[in-house]
Amino acid sequence: MKVSPQLICEGLPAEFEAQLSGASPLEETLEAPELLATDAPELRGGRIFVTSADRLPRLTKLGQGCALLCIGDTRRLDWFRRHCAVITVSPSLDFYTVFSAVQQVFLRIGNWVLDTYQILEDGGSIQSMLEASAAVTPASMIVVDSSFDCIASTGLRADSAESPEGVPDGAAEEAGRRLPLSQVDQYLASYNLSMSEKEPFALEFDQLQSLNVNLIDANGYHGCLSFLYYDRSMRPGDSFIARHLARMVLRCVSQPRGKTETRNDILKRALSNLIENLPLGTLELAALQAASSNGTYVCVLMRPQRRSRELPLSYICNSLEEDIPGTIAFEYKQTSVAAFIRIDRLAPEGSRRDELERRLLPILVSLDMKAGMSDHVSNPLEARSYFLQASIALDKGSCLQEGPSLYRFQDYALAELLENCTGEMPVELYFTSGLRRLFAHDKNSATSYVQTMSEYLKHNMNVTHTAQALFIHRSTLIDRLERIRSLLDEDLEDPDERLRLEMVLRALELRGQLRNQLGGYSQSGSIPLM
């Protein structure tokens, strides 16, 4: 068993007043201690030698990776410090006490390593591994999985309402608790957590230091082991303990374990298959039929924007299900979260959507996500149609309105209808001859007849309201409308003609808005956009 000079220094009793200096390697290079003879010709590499300030030999050679533990201090140690790690302890100590204490450090570390292997062989209890590790580090410990669920912890402070990982005291007995959504934004914004980091890394969260090791193997990210320091500073030697413990925890996590499929799992698979237009089995059909009698749902499609892309989507799904009871959430194409949220229990009829928005908006803002919301879903077998509504709301809303985080389908249904009403033909092919004359006029005039006509139709051909919208006098508008009617040569009293003109103008306006949001432009020579 090899350890580092830092680990030995930190493992000695406090009354030793141990100090580490010199060329100290961070790697675990040292084996069991030896007493250093006064006539020793060299210090062999990979060993720690115990001596006292008055028994330092005159040496000609130091082996690579050796270390010296000296009782007391002397200027002669300066030469050793330039070439190896040097640990000094109080000069009042005797050889036997110091040597025995160093042996105890090696024995304690060695027994701990053997204990972790034994726990792994006995079934791999991560909680047992953390409890065994309390013998070699004073830090509190917590392990979260890839969904930020706490799966084991030790030593969390009872006087802290929640740890920085969002897990209260006694979390070992509350497996499944996860970092609250309210804290995710602060955590990621402050430290830009990297889930690809393979070496131990330090973070400070809410004035609390932590040492963290990601659980990563060839199959990807499985979670994180964190050492938390409430009343003491981080110890450099804990990096060795954290690395070994993380390796053993990862082996526990990677061990195949049987998992019983729940009714909720079957329902998620059924809804996912419906959305993907895949066939349903007997179990899936039964789960959907059972859900159809359980209440009213809405479909919400949530898509990360920037920072929350670092979060596992499974974590967001689990958190939604925990924060809003009755939610069925699952990943969609590894880029989004699809959620069917039961709303009949949220509030009395008439205020259910408002209550759902009140609960969703803080989550979306904190995670930097946007979401589209469908109409009410009374029959889960129609999940695909309502998912399409949520998808349309999200796509159209994100393009047409930058500000909001949550978009309702009904607010963008007309935009979707207008975009699809022209089919494969360009909207210009639906122009009447009179509408083309209006566009021709606008090319050579500062006054837009097309804009005037569009506003006139939007305001139900009300002259007063249209004039107010255009910021012109009512009589000016009346004169302009006479000239427009002359060029248009259409009967605006005919509801069919009026509907056709309004749909074409609205479709042009929508196309212009979408192109502006997407950075598009009108090609030279084409009919100008509204």
Automatic annotation (TrEMBL):
Write down the superkingdom of origin.
Bacteria
- Looking at the record, the residues that make up the PucR C-terminal helix-turn-helix domain are 450-507
User: Which InterPro entries does UniProt cross-reference here?
Assistant: CdaR-like_regulators (IPR051448), PucR_C-HTH_dom (IPR025736), PucR_C-HTH_sf (IPR042070)
Q: Which residues form a coiled coil?
A: none
Q: Name one Pfam family in it.
A: HTH_30
Write down the Gene3D superfamilies for this protein, in alphabetical order.
Answer: PucR C-terminal helix-turn-helix domain (1.10.10.2840)
Q: What protein does this entry describe?
A: PucR C-terminal helix-turn-helix domain-containing protein
